[in-house]
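Target protein
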Amino acid sequence: MSTEDWEIRMSNSRGVPYFFNNASKVSSWDPPVGFTDEQISQLPGNHLLGPDPARSAAQTQVRASHLLVKHRDSRRPASWKDSNIIRTKEEAIEILQGYEAEINAAGDSFADKFAELATRESDCSSHEKGGDLGRFGRGQMQKPFEDAAFALEVGTMSGIVTTDSGVHLILRTG
């Protein structure tokens, strides 16, 4: 595969590198399919990948979905479902524990159940995408969320994670 049209750029919104094809105007968080670490290290902008130029952006990022339940002490106690959330943190945790039990009971189709519940119940605008937050790197999410997401293996779900936004279940998808 030819590397001549590809370069690595820095995302202004996320502050992480991405791959851009000047000919097709296609961009991707992931390295172009079929590129070796050697080819990636030769791309213009490879210094943006950090101290090891052969390291791909995918190795410094994760992809995750989440199911958020806000409570009255959340930093913004409102959502697309409810403009004034008054439940306590304890009540939010109980609700999330119920969702966690439903997801765990789904067996091999737990990821589908997670997306279904996130679409219907999450207090985050990511509900529109089944809770999918896309790829993100270190420093882009609240620390407890980031630590939990990076600690998960792909295809596994966290326990309840508390942040200033509320309480979450996190599913690592990439």
The chain has two domains: 6-55, 61-172.
